[in-house]
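TA notes. Do not distribute before section.
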Amino acid sequence: MTSRSLGHRAPLLWLVLPLMAGLAIGRSGDLAPAPWLLGGAFLAAAGAILAGWRDHRAWAPLLVAAMMLAGAASYALHRPRLAVWDRLPPREARVTLRIDRMFGQADAGKASGLATITRTDEHLRELAGQHVYFSLQLRPGEAAPVRSAHVAAVGVLATLPRTPPADTFDGYLAGAGMNYRLTRGRVLAEERAADGYHRFCARMAERFGRILGEGVADKRPELTAVLRAMLLGQQNELSDEQGTRFRQSGTMHIFSISGLHIAVIAGGLHALLALLRLPRWIRFIAGLTALWLYVDITGTAPSAVRAFVMVALVESSLVLRLPGNPFAALTASALLVLAVAPLQIFSASFQMSYGIVAALLLFGLPLGERWTSAWAPFRDRPKATWSWIHHAGDWLWRATAGALAIGLAASLVSAISGILFFKLVTPGALLANLVFIPAASLVILAGFASLLCGLAGFAAGAVLMNHAAATLLWGIDAGVRAFVAVPAMWFPASFAAPWVGTLALVGLLAAMLAGYARGWRGWQRGYWTPFAVVALALAAGVSWTGDSAP
């Protein structure tokens, strides 16, 4: 496959990659006011259209320039900085917050999340419209705010750094577009109640939590906590010990509502609607509506929203009977997400999820195909003469080769991103994920079935499914405990500088993209370049900081 054919198969790369570069440039400093950047982007886009109409080669660099300028402008618009506040110390402030997102809390007396400042005292009026992280102390019996509610609060307001380290909570907040923290706060009054839809989502989230605890919460609270973390994204339910074990084993992604969870839930919904034998368009609309409700009820985590967009694009191609192209769907999903929430590009979740999926498509699947075409059991025997043993052996080899190739692709990305964001190297993550991801998929299916039974009023079915999920989780937890106790399964490590890890991740994906564009032929034959990039990054850019196991 040539680079030209790659451009035809994924033309949105011409938009996505320059947009990402523009966002990174915008983050590096104030280049120019946003209106100037937008004006430059408009002129460059107009020039690209004119050059394309005249069939002039200048359309490509002009399009790249337009997207880069648009990315820089988008960063300035989505995270507007007030320079004077960077020089001010933390101060007490009274503000009105519109609640945009709530975080789970282990302490019922606290509430935290993300909000937009809608009103302030007169001397702080420049803060109106700014995004802020808040942490509030609740009075006894006081309920936590619900999304879309407007609450008056008072607390200590401090500015976040412009470019905090990516592996810190401040880095996460900056990636979400926050400029301020409001801590040690308390609610003064609810100025406007949440709308009916978000109150419904809050009630359903509480109901989901009760359903997933039916029959198991009193007997095995620690397993119930893990089940709720997996199905509802309530990672606050996990103990510190559980969270540490899952990070050390490289399986923490199982407990964030992301691609795996949305794919499994989407598959369950698809199977359920297929049993009802509804028309194709009704199944499509009902399935996506139900899937979005699940995403919204569980807190609209960015990773879940990205996975939903990807599923929606794939389902749309099936309904419209368009040729399937997973890489084009991936780039379209990235473009849509960045158009709505461009600062997600700086989050660990975005970089890891899109990086891993891109690695699967660019490297893992072609490698698996190469292995199965290079060697096949019973190749010299006519397939018409195969017995069930031959068919089973052939299927087992193909499944094993595909799983190993996909696991290698994910592990290459995780080797760099794990150090960059979690300061851990997990050499055993490939083996752990090969075992635990299928088991986790069964847990998600059991939890989904439990929710369906509970919503339908079939309590006995919910209890049965919860017990099945708890049994699987007991096995996963025991396996993870044994795994992290094995020497050399994980190491603390860090890059000498954050930019080294970012450069290594970009280089890895670039090597995969270049190999895919050339059909993994020529000097890239053997799929060796991604391994070389990772080996170079680990050898030259990593500081090993301790022993692997306690």
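Switch to the second chain here.
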Amino acid sequence: MQKRHCLLLVDENEFNRALWRGRLKEEFQDDIRLIEVTSGREALERVQKDLVDCVISSEQLPDCSGLELVARLLNEQETVLPIILISNNGGNEESALAALKAGALEYLPKDKLKGADFYRAVKNALVLATMRTTIHAQRQALGEIREELAPAEYDAMTDLPTRSHFREQLTRALARAERDDIRIGVMLIGLDGFQGINTAMGHEVGDEILTIVGKRLRNCFRNSDVIARWGGDEFAVLLDTIKNPEDSVIVAQRIMYALSRPFTWKGQELYVTSSIGIATAPGDGKDEESLLQNADRAMYRVKQAGGNNYELYASQTNVKPDNRLTLTSQLRRALKREEFVLFYQPQMDVQSGRVVGLEALIRWKDGEQGFRSPGEFIPLLEETGLIIPVGEWVLQKACTQARAWQYAGLSDLHIAVNLSAKQFRQPTLFKMIQRILGETGLDPTTLELELTESFLMADPKNANKVLHEIRSIGPLVALDDFGTGYSSLALLKDFPVDTLKIDRAFIRDICEKPDDRAICSAIVSLASALRLQVIAEGVETVPQLTELTSQGCHLIQGFLFARPMPPDEVWRWLTEEAEVRLLEAKVSSEG
């Protein structure tokens, strides 16, 4: 029999609770069980006593505000607990932003209770509730495992297995992987900025953070996976049986989401991000030492790039040390010989049927081997610093091409160009952008610069300053891979950002995985509240398109409409094929 979801209603006003009760019974009938309390204190007691799936609370309670209740519930639960705040009146944008910043899933004005928004919010909350059920089961399973382990195999501070136990489990997993021809993954997680907090605030605070990190990490994995305290501020994870290396990316994003919420110490909010290195067997190593070493290398590269991110060892250049110098020389020569070319991928507005922009993507056409994979050479460009002159070339070329298209009649078309972390740190970045705009004559407002969310969060104060400088001369700013660094929600309102790009990892399984669907819906709602554009990238199927448009996301980028194309093909596609592809997709989605 399907489990009945338990919803906790928090409001001292009986009329309000009766209104909520009626709407919930009308929409969900016997699929829910309701508990009603009148204060924040009672709410905290009931959540401790019952396995509550969702909390619906008034914005103002007799003993605290709704925002305070949200913060206490999330900090004390250390797990997924969807909370919906209902305003006492019409609500406003400032209140909505405060609620999202505190960690609420939704903020609804009182007058929305009779519409579809209330039903959608509760439905999304119940989808996320399944995650809480899984977490509860994981905790029980981990408790049983601990009883079976010797005390020396468990870390006293975090309640996680120790390094020695992890190595034993990894040895067994590798033997099983070879015998059964399956793939496993290893992740090493290092906390960014932890030593600074430890030094400035003392070991008591540091120990408390490590304890909470351990709790949050336990909630991110299956019962068959192993999470261990590796030592100091590092943790290790064994992913048992994965289909492909990309599956580990979803787990890494889940970890970053779990660690993105602030750690509260005596009323002060502290933020600790993570650097995650990933290696998979057998591709990245068939023995324990090589697998751990390669995961450590990937983690180190993330830390070198500023932290607050993840990296697959397989996504690195995978070039042997004696070949790296050769490839670096080839890349320098490729820049001089103009072997780099730009491809462009259209961005569609499915409501109007217009192509609103094109993202410029670098390709390398080697004279001997033909087109080389971006995954082969882009990491080496970053590592060697060649990304700085190459990135300047990309911006110059893209702006020149965009200006040519605008002269040809596509006056409202904007061009999107990615900025790397190393480019963004250059003190000459502002002058370089200003110079290229002047040389090409491109309208600055038709240029959109894309930066990854996780990079901006590594140093938000400096990033905010640089972004304001860039915006002062006209270019738009987009956050790429949005959804992988939730810590930015508290600071997003201060960044001069125009567009959020939903990370393709959430789009890929949006139709199959309720949590990915809920995350996409939350991002779309957040963008709407902040009056930002939102683009879904990596859209490849009609069901994905249908789900995204039903959530209110109408700007789409992906293979469903068009692959990246060289400039000569872009013009033909823009003038001949775009409307046909859009019509085909709409007909398929409506059918």
